[in-house]
Amino acid sequence: MKWTRTALGVALLLALVSQMTAHSSDDLVYGYECRSGFCQKVELSEENYAKAISLPVCRLFCGSSIGTLWPKPTGTVRLDTLMRQVDISFIDFNVNGTVRQQKLWRSVENRFMDMLDAQIPDRKILARGGYRMSVNINTPEEPTPARLTLETDESYILDIETDASGHVLANITATNFFGARHGLETLAQLIVYDDIRREVQVTANATITDAPVYKWRGLLLDTSRNYYSVKSIKRTLEGMAMVKLNTFHWHITDSHSFPLEVKKRPELHKLGAYSQRQVYSRRDVAEVVEYGRVRGIRVMPEFDAPAHVGEGWQHKNMTACFNAQPWKSFCVEPPCGQLDPTVNEMYDVLEDIYGTMFDQFNPDVFHMGGDEVSTSCWNSSQPIQKWMKKQGWGLETADFMRLWGHFQTEALGRVDKVANGTHTPIILWTSGLTEEPFIDEYLNPERYIIQIWTTGVDPKVKKILKRGYKIIVSNYDALYLDCGGAGWVTDGNNWCSPYIGWQKVYDNSLKSIAGDYEHHVLGAEGAIWSEQIDEHTLDNRFWPRASALAERLWSNPAEGWRQAESRLLLHRQRLVDNGLGAEAMQPQWCLQNEHECPIDACSRGGGRLGLIVLLLLTPLSA
Amino acid sequence: MKWTRTALGVALLLALVSQMTAHSSDDLVYGYECRSGFCQKVELSEENYAKAISLPVCRLFCGSSIGTLWPKPTGTVRLDTLMRQVDISFIDFNVNGTVRQQKLWRSVENRFMDMLDAQIPDRKILARGGYRMSVNINTPEEPTPARLTLETDESYILDIETDASGHVLANITATNFFGARHGLETLAQLIVYDDIRREVQVTANATITDAPVYKWRGLLLDTSRNYYSVKSIKRTLEGMAMVKLNTFHWHITDSHSFPLEVKKRPELHKLGAYSQRQVYSRRDVAEVVEYGRVRGIRVMPEFDAPAHVGEGWQHKNMTACFNAQPWKSFCVEPPCGQLDPTVNEMYDVLEDIYGTMFDQFNPDVFHMGGDEVSTSCWNSSQPIQKWMKKQGWGLETADFMRLWGHFQTEALGRVDKVANGTHTPIILWTSGLTEEPFIDEYLNPERYIIQIWTTGVDPKVKKILKRGYKIIVSNYDALYLDCGGAGWVTDGNNWCSPYIGWQKVYDNSLKSIAGDYEHHVLGAEGAIWSEQIDEHTLDNRFWPRASALAERLWSNPAEGWRQAESRLLLHRQRLVDNGLGAEAMQPQWCLQNEHECPIDACSRGGGRLGLIVLLLLTPLSA
């Protein structure tokens, strides 16, 4: 390699001008230059053709020390402005010490290559040549299969350099699979397509050390109110992987439908699914769990009980108030339905449901639901009243709380039974049971994690925290992503209206919710409750807002949404390129004209007009 | 045909039971029975298998005189409860007097068959046999090509009967193509798939006379703030055709981008499109216009001016304040930009744009935009100030209104020039120009139609009406379908938040907006302004809300949304079956359990327990 940068520049300019002529009809009109820390759109001309660059390339290094990375890393970030063309036919992966996990890594590699492909609008016009690239993964050998737990260290170090022979070496070091695949995700964001040169380019030199602030970074999807195809769930997992979210909380069942195949109790899905085409078979579940694992995501099932049951439980005489009318008197939305805690055989059914879930999901944490129990529902049942009287109990609220406590104790016993005696941490929603005095009576803080769905400023949160419970935050005023639609049993808007913008999701500080107890916060989840959402609107409800949540949880940035806006615009495009129908945040004009849309945009052409010229190194022969 | 209904019943039952056994694994669990005017879900059993029916079949006749028709017809509706199996391989079309329009009718027929197909989940398991069906279209011969105008009579009569040979005859009578194809749309809604018998069935006897209340029934799509693929625009036209909406108002350009190919001015889209892949070529436009025509839809272009221009006009020196900053001082959203009315050559460019639009769209009504002109924008231009002074004008608001009036007069002259002297009706948005005293000075009520986008109760509306202008209603508080998202230049929510539910769209009475001047109301349009919407969210923003609008405009029902709810739920499913990603209104449970979800749902099993049994006639041999 004896050519100098100047000589290369001339050769490159000539090559580009001839290319420009060759493709005049669908040629590019605009490129970008980095000026005063912003990527400015410029009309391409023979004069600027060699130095103008594409938007994704420009944004990688211009004006921000973290480029276009989303979520932003929490450790060192050193990104060179030098880009190198990569020959995507010569990318190889080397994984140390994971011989036994070959299949897992092969899936990860395939996905990585798919992500690169997704950026290239037309492979036929891709310029030839470029550097070879080796991706080297350094992790100690792990037990099979890799399993994410609350103890997993998800940190990684990514180092990109060029060796003497001109190869690009991307080295990822992590203590396990999960950290390593996060590193790969970051690497993917440093590889971009330059539509001016029609090349795939990579940041030539970089060092990034990174680790998440919160360990629980999740999305909840309710597949009972409306059904979602496996394909659409996979799209969600794909979007999650792209922003290092690590928990897919699957609220599989509810009163409305029971779409899960439980091997020993096929009548549950036969009677409970909307149709036999709307069932998650054992094969479907296995597919989703594995698809998540490849993407560093735990797929955690919830079986919500004792309320939120109904369809599927017909003919068993194990429920109360199923589809009672007028529903307003017995539950929060139609159809009503609660398990009858007094029927012993009911716990056998629970055990089979839990058994399927533990068998198929192998959860490190299990969700037992526990929200919105209605006293009036249970009180409407003669057999329940009779049973309670037999125990010498009254029929007051405290008595029904005792009944609930009884249910929870029995149900937990069945969980422990199917978990072979391991005491899996249990999550419950905030409810009457998580309030004084019942919380102390029925819920052991060593065992239970509480998922908060009240508002972030509700004093109940601190009461739970000071008792020593770990919490997961899903405050509805910032993280219920189904808010803001029409009413569905009334006119007007739905109960938690208005729509929650990504800005609010981004600025939702767990620290200010937890105060002094921040160390008890495992993390947070954004939730889609599906009364008015199904797979046709799934993508745009989650994205890009779930990306905003992801950065809050991974990076917990000191800055607010304004500092993240232009980077998120670019990330939203990345989601779209990868097949996710993310909602548009702004006119495309704002993506193409950085910093011109904010309400406080100031006039351009101010003091700092320094022009950064990108040096592009391309080998003369491939 | 000598068999009796009873004998048939027995044969049918036997046939069905054997079929049930044959498909036991993915067999149906539930069917429906019509009880007390509601379709009630029942578990299928050998006892009820012969009389249980599928939901779409049940809903066609149970409890409502208009079945599942959407929008509801305005004339006579007589629907028999008798259904007949149709052999979809033997459906033939006979179109009288339209020899010269064969291609148009062939497209219509293909689409009709596609709609039937969309209902069948799996053609492989479709039961054999059924009746032949003939669709007979009776319309007088028409000039080619069929063209929708404000004078077009869209009424039709649909008559379904069976002739002596057992054929189902669907006769549609109309005075032109547009009425006839509406009749076909209604017919398509009377043909449903019965998943119990795996048959396509048609209402055996029906008479429907129908005509729209309002002649302008439209949707507006802004393709400038964000770009929409032709494919996604076609989906919109498809949804419109299904509910007899007849006007696609294409707001093609704006300040943000100029995605239209103007033959004589290719620089407009070269410089103005977001990319050269995001351009509507002449071929694209022709395709969209024809796709609309086949579906009974006029595709009306808008060229919004003198404000709302910018990208594409570079290097011409014909605009003022393009992308001026801070934008708040010069326009309502970035990027700012207005035409400079003082540059004579600018009108030549306009003429070329208008020329392309008249050539390609052949509009019977043309939209010249005219909203949100900013005085401060024009006032920021030295050349404009100079020109105005030269005319002896001041620089006060009234002077700029005069400038605007000058623009409108000149621009209209160019429209008339390209329209070969025909005085095409012109639509303008409500604006400063449509207020006193300017409206009387610059806008002739014989020539201009005013599109209202202020609120429905704004007194300005009546002031316009009493002057004799015809109006089109797009009151933003009910018909701006982009309201309710996040802010896009601020946090919080966008300017016209909250989200407008379908109920509000449905109940938006043009009569109460227009009062005594109802006869001046041509109709209404629902609008999508695309700052935060692109093709990924297009379907769910329009649907099912645009269907609610369609019924308001076609039928103008005396009843409110509650009476329409369960029918719209079913229609939303129809949209989804036809490939539109319509938003979910409710849990699927509410579709399957009619009348159990409303907040005033009363307990079932009340007084009227009359059971209507559907008689199903199927020929013994195909």
Automatic annotation (TrEMBL), chains A, B:
Enzyme nomenclature, EC number: 3.2.1.52
Reactions the enzyme catalyzes: Hydrolysis of terminal non-reducing N-acetyl-D-hexosamine residues in N-acetyl-beta-D-hexosaminides
Signal peptide extent: 1-22
Keyword terms, alphabetized: Glycoprotein, Glycosidase, Hydrolase, Signal
Cellular component, GO, one term: plasma membrane
Biological process according to GO: carbohydrate metabolic process; glycosaminoglycan metabolic process; N-glycan processing; rhodopsin biosynthetic process
Record-annotated active site: E372
Residue ranges occupied by any Glycoside hydrolase family 20 catalytic domain in the UniProt entry: 214-556
Domain Beta-hexosaminidase eukaryotic type N-terminal: 134-190
Pfam families, alphabetized: Glyco_hydro_20, Glycohydro_20b2
Protein family according to the UniProt entry: Belongs to the glycosyl hydrolase 20 family.
Protein name as catalogued: beta-N-acetylhexosaminidase
Protein species of origin: Drosophila erecta
